[in-house]
Amino acid sequence: MALEPVEATLIAASVGSATSTAAVLVTHLLTRARDRGHKVWDRRMDTYKLLLRSRRDLAFARREFLNTGKNPAELVKADRELKESGLIAAELEMFGSTAVNAVNMAANIAFTQWAAAASEWHKLNGRPSADAEAHSKADEKWEQIKSITETADLVDNRLAEAIKTEADFKVPFKLERWRRPFRRDAIKR
């Protein structure tokens, strides 16, 4: 049975329309996946920005406490920090990497230790006492607070480094290979 020209035209049109429909679907799926990746990346970077801002505020409170010896509750707005830290922790669980989550957990532990030591020092130092032992305990606690502050600052710096490492944008290898001959320092004189 021979193929009529009309049938051949209809078959070619059907194959062409099916192919173009499949191409549109594949393009749509790939674009949607790329856009989702970009949205997750944007949310991750926004979460990291909030996290770094919160850590900066807490580091400022630690420095001010060491300089002034004021009550830590006056330096840190506890209710605001608790609300923000809960939201940041939830967003970090959803969008953050495991490395940043782990370092953030260490930063939370360091801040909790600092807050407990500062509160204990404030209680020891707040009572008027002629007892030399109470003053020596307060002095020991102050030295402990200094070391905990240094540790907390180091952990905060490590958190910032982990975020910078994750957010580091590099040129893909293929583009880098083509750019290399055009660099000024690559030209021999």
Automatic annotation (TrEMBL):
The chain crosses the membrane at residues 6-30. The keyword Membrane applies. It comes from the Bacteria. Keywords: Membrane, Transmembrane, Transmembrane helix. The keyword Transmembrane helix applies. This is SLATT domain-containing protein.
